[in-house]
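Bench notes, bay 3.
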Amino acid sequence: MLPARRLSAPLALIAILLIARAASASLILALDLPNMVARADQIAVVDVVSVKAAWNQQHQRIITTIDLVVVDSWKGTAAPATHLLVVQPGGTVDDITMTIAGMTRFDPGERALVFLRGRPDKASVVGMAQGKRVLHREGGTKRWMVSAPDRAGADFVRATPAASAAPVFETRDRPLADLRAEVRALAAAPGGRP
């Protein structure tokens, strides 16, 4: 009987740790492309110029400001070469890192497609990690491809139960030109829907 007690304590600890890990993830409403377009004030291909993290005034939270320069605007008023600032919680200051599950990360020098909401000088990313998609060149053709959104440690759920086992949102890379045409059509439609 004694060996069973020795075994149950470590198993209980493992179960508690697994539950705590699952509870720490963000649960985010999955947005399809028409909803992303409808919610965004600015949709653009951008280059990340800089990423700067700092403490808020109360020294309680870390806030990161991301400077983006517009390469190609698909929706909104931002012209090419215009700067947009994204402000979001999380980041690293000195040796302290604040991570928000589901919040996308930006890296200086990367090119991305972003869906932004708010003023151009203090925007936020629509749908958290769903609203930033890294661009890369396809190996053989060298055409620009849009990567699927990074989940950034979050779980995404549909507003209504899905009738199929299809992914919550697209998981494959898409040609930039194809996505541009679809987004511009949605943006031109009343309410952002065809």
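Next record in the batch:
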Amino acid sequence: MDSLLIHIENIDRMVNQWASTIHTPLLDKIMFLATSAGEFLPMTILSILIFLLLILLKRRNFIAPYFVAIPGGFGLMNLLKYLFGRERPPDAAFHVTGYSFPSGHAMMSTIILLFILVAFTENIKKTLLRIIFFLLIAGAILLISFSRIYFNVHWLSDVIGGIVLGIIWLGVSLSLK
């Protein structure tokens, strides 16, 4: 187990070192927009809009999963951060507080954006538009998640862990449907 952790830490360091070499002014702006989109306030506003759309579109079968997935996911993420207590990478591009694992941006954007995909895809009738919708959601999750490595506020394993935990938690939440 210790050798596995050492390998993960080595990969984490290599990926963060690589990410530090690809900065450009344009990419910095794109990544700043992505990381800002994954912050608490924008995700909270999006979550409220999701709830209102569920009511408006009479998607009542998604109400219980919504409350387990989104507020419950936020609580789970904070509990896991406390339990793991993993320190963030040194030399972050900006000051961030709290523990590193799992990445809250990765976990919550995965939960919230995939919830949108599951809850509202059936409202899109054309196959091409469904594919575009899926690609936009997947792209947003990946961009928000990668921005955390780009700015050196998370390790790769924090981000992968956040995405995987987000998918698992959403699956558990949707089982209440």
